[in-house]
Fold each of these.
Amino acid sequence: MTKYEKPMVIANDELAEGVFAASGCYTVTATRHQEPQTGRVNVRFQVNAHHDASHTCDVQYLTLNFTKPVQFISTDAQGAELVSPLSKDSASNTIVLKLTYHNNRTDNIGIGDVTVFGDGDVDVSSASMTDVSN
Ligand SMILES: [Zn+2]
């Protein structure tokens, strides 16, 4: 059994918008695919993560913090499972996904279709990824 620990997230205001320097071995960026809209809609995000470490890993937690509550809809990310909130019916400012990429020491992950439902101007306020030890 692996115990989930909430990752520490450090937002770096000096970097370009949507770029976050997370603790641990990943740098994660999250950018919205579409312009802000009015009303409640599906909003799709591009999430990129760069692994910079001397180890490999096979399981990750991706944490996305949003400016407004959203409901997770879908992603084709490898092995994706919704960890938090426990139900897709629940709206939350934080979504945690478990992923199963085999990451070599300096691999890049690109996820083009993280889709949530919420206000059309919602954005990601911070993003991070952490390894889960097997
Ligand atoms: Zn790592």
Amino acid sequence: MSIFNKFKQGLQKTRDFVTESFNRIAANLGYFDEDMLDELEMVLVQADCGIEFATELTEAIRENIRQTGDSSVENVLSILRKGMLDLLKDVKSLELQPGKLNILLMVGVNGTGKTTTSGKLAKQFQDQGKKVLMAAADTFRAAAIEQIKVWGERTNTSVIAHKIGSDPSAVVFDAIDAAKARNTDVLIIDTAGRLHTKQNLMDELSKIRRIISREAPDAYLETLLVIDATTGQNAIVQANAFAEATEVTGLIMTKLDGNAKGGVALAVVKETDLPVKLAGLGEGVDDLQDFNPEIFVDSLLPDPESLKS
Ligand SMILES: Nc1nc2c(ncn2[C@@H]2O[C@H](COP(=O)(O)OP(=O)(O)OP(=O)(O)O)[C@@H](O)[C@H]2O)c(=O)[nH]1
Ligand SMILES: [Mg+2]
């Protein structure tokens, strides 16, 4: 399946919602008036684009209509598209540095998809012929260690693991050691999403980061915050909390297929200024895709042909 079709399929719930709303609001007249633009703003809020960004987008539409006099559905759609692409213009997908150890530190609250995404990434890099290693630095739950080991078997990737309750930084230490010895291209570190307190969690991440900079100062490090798109505006709270505690370099939005609120990717970028690097569009191993702004926006907004006129 092409990447465009993957995104279209993954974001179908959101797109259907936006398309139905467009048709409901503008079908009779074929153009937008003031009240209809207010309704459109609400639709964007309901798709979780965030109030601030929804207001910004509809203001841009009003301004454009004032200037051009064109309030057609097509014009409104094209201004929305442009506004969204503008927000995402700095997004760059994940790029490994050749000839170096690349370390991907997966962080995020529990259940967002860190372990699954680590497995999916391992598969992708293996398919590209890279030497991959995973570290089971979520030592909080026995099941977590088992889960990453299963992904290791499934993707033919070695997993460095210690016992439940052991120090995650020690796992990372050993994993870096092994990565150096094996000439590894990519080390993927799966971390815990839940500890006894939020402070414990943040302290643990800081410690892991210290070990990485001490033991692998020349490595290329990406700290990827995994966010569950179905958690709505709470995603923004999480993103802010992690960005404060550790230097996040990019976002992975998972479960974009889960509900009609895929617009949350836009709200999180608006709020944090962090680039979305990858999109999780389903549970399958091939459902992780590089985040492509154009394809994302075209999958989120109605297909012009699907609009009644
Ligand atoms: N539909 C859908 N489900 C996903 C996606 N990514 C992950 N999941 C599911 O989300 C659930 C939680 O994923 P995990 O990888 O265990 O999450 P985690 O962040 O490691 O969770 P903790 O280890 O508890 O912190 C699993 O059932 C995954 O299959 C996605 O892109 N789409
Ligand atoms: Mg996990």
